[in-house]
Design goal:
elongated, 2 domains, 1 helix, about 270 residues, 6-stranded antiparallel β-sheet, 8-stranded antiparallel β-sheet, Elongation Factor Tu (Ef-tu), domain 3
């Protein structure tokens, strides 16, 4: 069995097997959906929407120790690792480039007779997002040699980049769900000359964002969801109040009104 890594939000990592917590199972369930229906007449209904439910991921392990005192110390160590007053990340060493954001449900380990170990402990990990996310963002070069990206992430068999300097280009959303401005936005970072402002259009979704004020290459424009910033100052009033979502797969992007520019995307993908 591969080991499981617990990573706290401050970056601290715990290798469960190395710490004496022998992982026996870590099985990711398939995504769970709920559906909304609207009654149509007397004899039927139509499905109007679907919603991704949170995942419950069972982690089964045993606690091992050197003696009874060490066993009790291990119980406190496990409590510290699985502390759930905040989220933490769970990483399977087989696919170290993906992680689940979770919190642990309460559990009471039981000692296995007089042995200095526990019976199987099942810890239910609640993943509110319902999906794993890539550990790396698109600012990390996309290649297999770095270990930041890997199999199962839908990386195409061709070179792709998330930094562009042409008016027309393709943004690849490699995940299983759309990147939406109100839930999982893709941050757009723009530097360029646009004396009368500029427009970014996603031809795939039919959405456009327009900045109505002039900027130069020395300025930094960041569009993160529905809130544009110019040099770290809110610029919502200077925009068309538009926003950009990104469909699964290829998104055809066009930029108008700008020259001598670079634009890059900073996002994770969800699986």
């Amino acid at each position: 069995m591969s080991t499981i890594i617990i990573q706290r939000l401050d970056g601290t990592k715990y290798d469960l097997d190395a710490l004496g917590f022998r992982v026996k199972q870590f099985n990711i369930p398939l995504n769970n959906y709920s559906y909304a229906y609207q009654q149509i007449g007397k004899h039927g209904s139509t499905r109007t929407d679907s919603y991704q439910q949170y995942l419950v991921i069972p982690l089964i392990l045993t606690i091992t120790a050197e003696d009874i005192n060490d066993y009790n110390l291990q119980l406190f160590e496990l409590r510290r690792i699985m502390r759930s007053d905040e989220d933490f990340y769970v990483i399977n060493s087989v696919m170290p480039y993906m992680r689940w954001k979770c919190r642990a449900e309460a559990v009471t380990p039981t000692q296995n007779g007089n042995f200095w170990r526990s019976a199987d402990v099942t810890i239910n990990l609640d993943c509110a997002d319902g999906y794993a996310e890539s550990v790396a963002t698109t600012l990390t070069p996309m290649n297999f040699s770095s270990g930041a990206w890997g199999f199962g992430q839908n990386i195409p068999d061709k070179d792709i980049s998330f930094e562009f300097s042409s008016n027309d280009f393709v943004f690849h959303n490699l995940g299983l769900i759309p990147l939406t401005a109100d839930e999982r936005p893709a941050k757009i970072i723009f530097n360029g000359d646009a004396p009368n402002g500029f427009t970014i259009t996603n031809k795939t979704t039919g959405q456009s964002f327009k900045l109505n004020r002039g900027v130069s290459r020395a300025d930094t424009v960041i569009i993160n969801g529905i809130m544009p910033m110019v040099n770290a100052q809110q610029a919502y009033k200077d925009s068309n109040h538009g926003y950009l979502d990104f469909a699964i797969g290829e998104n055809q992007i066009h930029i108008d009104g700008a020259s001598n520019f670079d634009v890059k995307f900073d996002t994770r993908f969800y699986y």
